[in-house]
UniProtKB/TrEMBL annotation:
Phylogenetic classification of the source organism: Eukaryota, Viridiplantae, Streptophyta, Embryophyta, Tracheophyta
Family statement: Belongs to the ALG10 glucosyltransferase family.
EC number: 2.4.1.256
GO BP terms in the entry: dolichol-linked oligosaccharide biosynthetic process
A GO-annotated cellular component: endoplasmic reticulum membrane
Pathway: Protein modification; protein glycosylation
Function: Dol-P-Glc:Glc(2)Man(9)GlcNAc(2)-PP-Dol alpha-1,2-glucosyltransferase that operates in the biosynthetic pathway of dolichol-linked oligosaccharides, the glycan precursors employed in protein asparagine (N)-glycosylation. The assembly of dolichol-linked oligosaccharides begins on the cytosolic side of the endoplasmic reticulum membrane and finishes in its lumen. The sequential addition of sugars to dolichol pyrophosphate produces dolichol-linked oligosaccharides containing fourteen sugars, including two GlcNAcs, nine mannoses and three glucoses.
Name by which UniProt lists this protein: Dol-P-Glc:Glc(2)Man(9)GlcNAc(2)-PP-Dol alpha-1,2-glucosyltransferase
Membrane in keyword set: yes
GO MF terms, alphabetically ordered: dolichyl pyrophosphate Glc2Man9GlcNAc2 alpha-1,2-glucosyltransferase activity
PANTHER family linked to this entry: ALPHA-1,2-GLUCOSYLTRANSFERASE ALG10, DOL-P-GLC:GLC(2)MAN(9)GLCNAC(2)-PP-DOL ALPHA-1,2-GLUCOSYLTRANSFERASE-RELATED
Amino acid sequence: MLNLGILLNARHRLHLLLLPFLQTFFLTYATDTAGSNAFPVAQGVDLFQMFRKSRPLHVFLMLLALFVGILSVHFFSVAHPYLLADNRHYPFYLWRKVIMAHWSIKYLLVPVYICSWISIIRRLGKFRSKISVLAYFLATATVLVPAPLIEFRYYTIPFYFLVLHCNNRDDQGWLLTGALYIGVNIFTMMMFLFWPFQWDHEPGIQRFIW
């Protein structure tokens, strides 16, 4: 029987590998958002210039990537039951209130994912060989694709590897990244300490966390 899942442990525990190919897209967006030290402000200008001066082959490849991305979003937008069962974690709200807020949003985000991947590949390609860039992509996809849950911690090691291999020395980028992380940590602590809530079906105080 074809069930499109790989069983780990007991099936009733829902430990399934559901092949959510969107994990690689989420990684790129998280990396571009959190990685200003790896992607300085000038990188956005370079990316715009690249699109403006694209050759026919580049345009075709970008359209092909867009087509593949839309297919991936359409067929592999997998919501693991654990993701929808716990409203204490931010991915719960990211999925329900953003990605699935309207049927069109998941498709509208595809160009953002594609641009993020192009940005990562171009930035990493300035410091590493094409083989290294391909190895990074394949290794990242191999680790993330079988992971059924959207967890920001899954992106930590790929992000660190990317930053370390980019050899970036942009002071503005590092300062911006530091300010961003401080802001995120303050927000996380404020939500955890001062905005508790309770479940109707279970006693005790619940708190928001990543």
